[in-house]
Amino acid sequence: MTARSRFLAEFPKAIADDAAAVFIGAGVSAGAGYPSWKELLREIGHELGVDSGDVHDLAALAQWSVRKSAGRTRVNNVIRAEIAQEKPIPSVLKTIARLPIRNLWTTNYDRLIERSFSEIARPIDPISAAADLALRPRPGAARLFKMHGCVNNLDNIVIATDDYELYRLKRGAFLPLLQSHMTSFSMLFVGLSFTDPNVRHVLSLIRESFTASPPEHFAIVRPPQRTDYKTSKEYKARLTQHKLWADDLQRYGLQVVEIERYQEVDDLMSDVERRVARNRVWISGSWPITGGDPADLSYVYEVASAVGQRLGEGDFSLVTGSGLAVSSAALTGFLSALQRGGNWDLNRRLIARPFPQPLDGKPPETAQWAELRAEMARVSGAIVFIGGAKWEQGQLVDADGVTAELEAARNSGAYLLPIGSTGGVAKAIAEQLIALPGSSGGGKSQRPSKSDLRALLRPADPQEVAKKVISILSKRS
Fold this sequence. Notes:
49% helix, Rossmann fold, 22 helices
């Protein structure tokens, strides 16, 4: 198995098990348009009579400026001018913000990560000073450990030699926590060169603690490319060094996932997001509590309850809007299965987004409902449609809300699984999918085979229907 295949197989599983963390390096910020260290300190180097490109130890260059200026003001002004401005948020950070990862690390000063979380209204607690580690985490908030400080507090950032030499004295509380996370979590490194002395120190501690079987981590790395260098000789030399370096990282349990283009990082993380969502199933549907044939309501309810139960018994998570009839039945079956199995891992396996119901005479919050549907479709790998009808003017009609959820599902690329025997929108979807050209099903298809769809169109015992649904979900690629 290649490192890439291993990463795509193991890291999404670690995320789903709440056993993953991410370390975001300077390469991500550089991709957003922020300067590299050399570019950041170029002007300061010119003032000192040196070229930052010729200086290997850039922390020393910053230190020289601090000494010559009798303070950090000059360095701080440069950082504020270059880093405080808001650059566009890279796609990779938007994807990371959507993933259910609760612990993130970075050596970057900018606020790209915080902004990526704010953009989707997801809470995050930045920890940029050692004293902040003592603060109680906000319930539900991710934690961002900014090892080198933040542009919001320039006097406490790590940039000069003194800052590194006195790191354990002033910011040393970060190190045992990072060591703990690298011991208990699978860590993904993105945009990091591993030249930071503090990161290397933690890697050495991991090596010391796990000499034979270190925890497995991953690093997405772009190896040297021929177009990066003027001569073939220099390229070959750099490539040889890279291969030796990548092999050496395995001593720390680090698997190097190589890419040819930086844009591949976006593709990899999007693939991770899809794999994390694979076993999340949104049960979409509705049925009127009053009006219509009570036997139809009973059948829809029993099917929804049976499907929820089977999801709970398997390795699936339930996504629900907590509505009447279908959603409540699915939720009841799901929770019952978890209780019987002694598994109450609700934080991981239940994603509920209740739709706010309007008071009598008030219009529904259609914009908010649309946002909720889009989010639920995005986090779900598959959407099971059950029923989808309402009682209107004395007759049973298709529920426009479930139709809207079908549109959200199609926009997200989720797997569509209608149980046509339950009627309503679910039956209409099944008939539409059967009428499409091609046999569908198997591979990377986003819908079941026509034979499976036809089987679910025929009324059957609810438990048998649920068993068929789980079989279809389990054989997806």
